[in-house]
Design goal:
The complex is a heterodimer of chains A (386) and B (284). With 386 residues, chain A is of the alpha+beta class. Chain A is built from eight helices and 20 strands. Chain A folds into two domains: 240 residues, Rossmann fold; 124 residues, OB fold (Dihydrolipoamide Acetyltransferase, E2P) (Beta Barrel), CATH 2.40.50.100. Helices cover 75% and strands 3% of the residues of chain B. Chain B has twelve helices and two strands. Chain B has a two-stranded antiparallel sheet with strand order 1-2. Classes of the chains: A alpha+beta (386), B mainly alpha (284).
C-alpha cells in the first residue's frame, strides 16, 4: 500500500514523460502486407517516420491509405512484414501490445461494457499492479481532467457519445504512456461536438505533455491540431511537414488536391533560359510565373502548377508588374457573405477557383459571363510532382 | 385514432390466444388435477388433497435429486465443451463460420430418440469404442459404460450441446474485437483479457445456454431409459410411468409441479448469484 507516494493535486496525476533524447516513436522502412485469399495486399510501403517526444503528430489520408495500419503497428496489433518499430529508441518489433508503453484510443471507444467508468479507467493500472490507493487517486484525477468525475459509477452505456469518448481517452492517458495513439477518435461525433473536442484534446495534450499520434481522414482536424502531419496515400507518406508547410507548399498533386481547395493547372514550360521566375504557358496563350520548377522540367515540357484560390486576385483590368496573368470568363459566382467564390474558365478545359474576401463591401467584381483577368504572385504557385 | 390504438392489441391477440390455450389452460388443469383423489375407473374428485405433494416428494426424492444432479453435470459438461467450440467458431472461424454452425446442427436432422439409441451401439460393451480399447488391452474385458450414470450424463450433454453453443456463439460473435485489443493495449495478457473482458461480457450467453440445457436435461427421460438401464431412472421417467402406465394422474401432476418449482427456484438463485443486472443486460 505505502510503496508509492501520491500527490493530491490534479496536475500531478500526469507527469511529463522522461526525456531520453531519443524520439518517442520511429519507424524505419516499415512495410506491411496482408494475405487476402491467394493475393497479397500491401497496406504500407517503406514508411520512415520519426515522432518527437511531446509532439502532436497526425497521420492524414483517405480511407485505405495505410494510416490505421501504420498506427496499429506502433500499438503492436500488427507486426510489420519488414522494417523496424522503435519506442524511445528501443526496438519493439515483435513485442506484443501488452508489453508496449503506448496506449490507444479506439474509434469505437471499445469501452468494457460490464465495468463502470472508474473500473474502465483503472483497468490498465490494475494489470500493472499499481497500489490500490494510488489507483484511486490517479483514476479520480484523470476523471476530473476529462470532466467526468461525477460519472465514475456509471456504466458506459449510460453515457453520451462524447462522454464515452472522454472515458476512452482517460482510460489510455491514466497509464502515462510514452505515446498516446488515437484512431479517428472524433469520427463518431457530430460536427459541433467534434469541434469542441478538438479544442479539448489539444488542451489535454498541452497539459499532460504526452506524444499524441492522431489518425484522421479529416484534413481540417489535422491542420487545426497537429504540430506535424504525415499525408499518406496508397501506403506511402506523400508529404511530411507542419500544417502551414503542407498547406502552403504541397509537394505532390495528391497533397494539393487532398488538403484544402487547390487549382491544378497544366501548362507548358516556355523556356528555362531567362532566369527565375520561370514562365509557363497555361490556358489560351496566357502566362503563369512559377518561383521554382523541378530540375527535370525542360522547355516545351508539360508541368502541373498549383495555386490556392485565396491567393488569386480577380479584376477586370489587365494587371501590371511581375505577376502571373491569365484571362478568362466567369462561369459561376457564389456569394457567401464574408467572401465570394468565382469559377473562371481560362480555356483549354481548365477552371480556376477564386476566393475573394468581401472587404470593400462593393459587391461582385464581375458577373457571370464577364471577361476577367486573374493574377497571382510568382511565389504563390509551384510545380508539383506526381 | 382509436384504430391506431387498438391495432397493436389485435396483432398480439393470436399470441395471447395461443398462450391461453396451450399454456394457461393445461397448467391450470394440471394444478387442479394434482389436488384430486381417485382413480381412472371411479373418476377423480377435486378434494384439494395436498397429501399428493407430500407423497410425491417422500416417494420420489431420490429420483428428483438424481435428475437435478444429472442435469447439472450435463450442463457443466456442455459449458466445458460448448464454450471453447463457440469461442473457436466466433474468433477463428473466419469465412467458414456458418459451415461450422451447420455442422453443429446437422445431427438435429435425425430424430432425438434415434440419435440416443445410436449411442447404445457406440457405447456397447463390445462396440466400436469399448471393444477396440479392450482388444488393445487398454480396458479390462468386463468394463462397461452403458446402463450407468456417466452414460446418461454423456447422452444428455450430447443431445443438448447445441443449445449451449449457439447462445454463447451469438454473444461472442457480435463482441467488438477492438474491445479485446483494448484489453491487450492496457497490459492484459491473453489469460487476463479472457478472464477480465471476454468471459464477463459473454456471461449473458452462458446464462441463456444454462437455461436452455439445464431445464430440458433435468426433466429428460429418453436418455435415462435408453442409456441408463434400471438403476438410473430420472424424475421424467417417473412422471411418464405414473401418467401413461399407472394412470395415477394426481401423483404425476404433483411431481411435475415439484420439479417445476425446484427448477424455478434454482434458476432465480443462479441469476441472483451471477447478478441479474449483468445477466439480463444486453450489450451492444
Amino acid at each position: 500500500m505505502a510503496t508509492s507516494t501520491t500527490t493530491s493535486a490534479p496536475e500531478a496525476a500526469v507527469e511529463p514523460p522522461a526525456q531520453t533524447g531519443e524520439p518517442a516513436i520511429s519507424l524505419e522502412d516499415v512495410t506491411k502486407s496482408f494475405r487476402s485469399g491467394s493475393e497479397t495486399v500491401t497496406a504500407v510501403t517503406g514508411v520512415d517516420l520519426t515522432i518527437g517526444t511531446g509532439e502532436f503528430f497526425s497521420l492524414l489520408g483517405p480511407s485505405g491509405c495505410g494510416k490505421t495500419t501504420t498506427m496499429r503497428m506502433i500499438a503492436g496489433f500488427e507486426e510489420p512484414t519488414s522494417g523496424t518499430v522503435r519506442l524511445d529508441g528501443r526496438d519493439v518489433t515483435g513485442v506484443p501490445a501488452n508489453h508496449r508503453d503506448v496506449n490507444m484510443v479506439f474509434q469505437s471507444y471499445a469501452l468494457f461494457p460490464h465495468m463502470n467508468i472508474a473500473d474502465n479507467v483503472a483497468f490498465g493500472l490494475r494489470r500493472r499492479g499499481v497500489a490500490k490507493a494510488e489507483i484511486r487517486t490517479r483514476v479520480a484525477d484523470m476523471l476530473d481532467l476529462v470532466e467526468l468525475g461525477h460519472r465514475a459509477k456509471h456504466r458506459p452505456s449510460q453515457l453520451s457519445g462524447g462522454q464515452q469518448q472522454r472515458v476512452a481517452l482517460a482510460r489510455a492517458l491514466v497509464n502515462q504512456p510514452g505515446a498516446l495513439l488515437l484512431d479517428e477518435p472524433l469520427g463518431a461525433l457530430d460536427l459541433k461536438l467534434r469541434q469542441s473536442m478538438q479544442v479539448e484534446l489539444k488542451r489535454i495534450q498541452r497539459e499532460v505533455g504526452i506524444t499524441f499520434v492522431y489518425v484522421t481522414h479529416d484534413q481540417g482536424e489535422a491542420l487545426t491540431m497537429s504540430d506535424r502531419i504525415a499525408v499518406m496515400n496508397h501506403g506511402r507518406v506523400e508529404q511530411l511537414g507542419t500544417p502551414a508547410e503542407i498547406y502552403e507548399r504541397p509537394a505532390t498533386r495528391f497533397v494539393a488536391d487532398f488538403i484544402g481547395t487547390s487549382n491544378l493547372l497544366t501548362g507548358v514550360v516556355w523556356d528555362r533560359s531567362g532566369g527565375e521566375p520561370w514562365r509557363v504557358e497555361v490556358g489560351d496563350g496566357a502566362t503563369a510565373l512559377a518561383a521554382e520548377l523541378p530540375d527535370t522540367a525542360e522547355a516545351g515540357g508539360e508541368v502541373h502548377l498549383t495555386v490556392r484560390p485565396e491567393k488569386v486576385h480577380i479584376g477586370v483590368a489587365e494587371p501590371e508588374g511581375a505577376v502571373s496573368r491569365v484571362p478568362g470568363t466567369v462561369t459561376e459566382t457564389v456569394y457567401l457573405g464574408s467572401a465570394t467564390h468565382y469559377q473562371v474558365d481560362i480555356g483549354s478545359d481548365q477552371q480556376v477557383t477564386v476566393f475573394q474576401q468581401n472587404a470593400s463591401g462593393s459587391g461582385l467584381v464581375a458577373e457571370r459571363g464577364e471577361r476577367v483577368w486573374l493574377s497571382w504572385l510568382p511565389e504563390h504557385s509551384y510545380a508539383l510532382s506526381d | 385514432m382509436s384504430n391506431r390504438k387498438t391495432t397493436p392489441y389485435v396483432l398480439v391477440l393470436p399470441a395471447w390466444v395461443w398462450l391461453a390455450m396451450f399454456f394457461v389452460v393445461p397448467i391450470g388443469g394440471m394444478l387442479s388435477l394434482s389436488l384430486t383423489t381417485g382413480n381412472v375407473v371411479t373418476g377423480f374428485q377435486q378434494t384439494f388433497e395436498v397429501g399428493n405433494y407430500v407423497e410425491a416428494v417422500a416417494t420420489y426424492w431420490e429420483q428428483i435429486v438424481r435428475s437435478l444432479f444429472y442435469g447439472g453435470c450435463a450442463t457443466l459438461l456442455c459449458i466445458a465443451i460448448g464454450y471453447p467450440m463457440a469461442y473457436w467458431i466466433a474468433f477463428r472461424g473466419g469465412a467458414h463460420k456458418s459451415t461450422y454452425l451447420l455442422l453443429i446442427l446437422l445431427p438435429f436432422f435425425v430424430s432425438f430418440v434415434l440419435r440416443t439409441i445410436s449411442w447404445r451401439f457406440l457405447l456397447a460393451d463390445n462396440g466400436v469404442v469399448l471393444g477396440t480399447l479392450k482388444s488393445v488391452g487398454l480396458l479390462p474385458s468386463d468394463a462397461a459404460v452403458l446402463n450407468s450414470s456417466p452414460a446418461v450424463i454423456l447422452g444428455l450433454a450430447y443431445n443438448f450441446l447445441p443449445f449451449m453453443v449457439l447462445p454463447i456463439y451469438a454473444v461472442l460473435e457480435r463482441m467488438d474485437p477492438r474491445m479485446v485489443e483494448a484489453a491487450h493495449d492496457l497490459y492484459a495478457g491473453r489469460v487476463q483479457a479472457f478472464l477480465r473482458v471476454i468471459l464477463p461480457v459473454s456471461l449473458p450467453g452462458v446464462f441463456a445456454g444454462v437455461l436452455m440445457t439445464f431445464i430440458p436435461t433435468s426433466s429428460d427421460y429418453v436418455n435415462s431409459s435408453v442409456l441408463g438401464g434400471t438403476h438410473n431412472t430420472m424424475i421424467g421417467n417417473v412422471i411418464q410411468t405414473q401418467y401413461l402406465v399407472n394412470n395415477n394422474y394426481p401423483i404425476a401432476s404433483a411431481i411435475t409441479f415439484v420439479l417445476m418449482g425446484l427448477l424455478l427456484v434454482g434458476i432465480f438463485s443462479y441469476a441472483r448469484a451471477l447478478g441479474t443486472e449483468r445477466v439480463m443486460e444486453v450489450h451492444t
